[in-house]
Amino acid sequence: MAQFLRTRATWNAPSSGGTALFTYYWGLAVGTPSDVMTEAAARVHAFWDSFKSFMPNTGTVIIDNFGDEVDETDGAIVGQAVGSAVANVNGTAGGDILPYQTQGLIRLSTSNFVTGRRVKGRQYIPQPNEVYNAGGVPTAPYLAGLQTAADLLGTVISTAAPQQIWHRPNGGLAGHAYDITSRAVSPSWAVLKSRRA
Questions:
Q1: CA dist., res. 146 & res. 151, Å (int)
Q2: pLDDT score recorded for residue 197
Q3: How many domains does the chain have?
Q4: 153: in domain
Q5: Residue 162 three-state SS
Q6: 162 located within any domain
Q7: Do residues 67 and 37 lie in contact, with contact meaning Cβ atoms separated by under 8 Å?
């Protein structure tokens, strides 16, 4: 029974009506679950800290230092891990915010295929400021900043735990977690229509 670690962070911007939940998956083959949790929290912190100048100063990213150990085949929680705590990250960008449905997008890819399709994932980035919009698309500085931040999710700090995508059980096939091999920022704004925890 293979397992992965599920961790979370929350964007909280009550004055601008913005909240968002970010879920991350991490391989547990290297180090203890506590080591992986510490690494995951540190990388997620590095991501948001790198990108904070593009996030509204009305909000804060709260990064959990605990996560669930999950059976990849059926999604059952089989344990929990606690790691070292990291500081919250406050956005620092001033100015007006684009409509909430307008979001940045990081495309996550693996080298694995299920039923003939490559396993992929996405991370949406809420509440971009209007100053980073040019003719209906993100500005070059926004895209470059988001790509730099995204790459930090794959940059080892102390434990070489891979960030993963979980292909959920579906159509009689067991679930499986696959290592992310690339992160690419979309050159267009994305619209988040729904989300799953």
A1: 9
A2: 44
A3: 1
A4: yes
A5: coil
A6: yes
A7: yes
Domain that holds residue 144: 3-191
Bridge partner list, 90: 60
**Length of the chain, in residues:** 197
Backbone dihedral angles phi then psi of residue 61, each to the nearest 5 degrees? -95, 125
β-bridge partners, 66: 82
Note whether residue 197 is domain-resident: no
Angle (deg, nearest 10), helices 33-51 and 140-152: 170
Q: Give the integer Cα–Cα distance in Å for 61 and 56.
A: 11
pLDDT in tens, the chain (197 residues): 599 999 999 999 987 777 999 999 999 999 999 999 999 999 999 999 999 999 999 999 999 999 999 999 999 999 999 999 999 999 999 999 998 889 999 999 999 999 999 999 999 999 999 999 999 999 999 999 999 999 999 999 999 999 999 999 988 899 999 999 999 999 999 997 765 54
- Residue 30 within a domain: yes
Q: In one letter, which amino acid is 129?
A: N
Distance CA(161)–CA(149), nearest Å, equals 18
pLDDT value of residue 194:
61
d(CA 176, CA 70): 11
The Cα 182–Cα 111 span in angstroms is: 9
Question: In this predicted structure, what is the pLDDT of residue 101?
Answer: 87
The C-alpha atoms of residue 40 and residue 46 are separated, in whole angstroms, by: 10
In the chain, the amino acid numbered 149 is: A
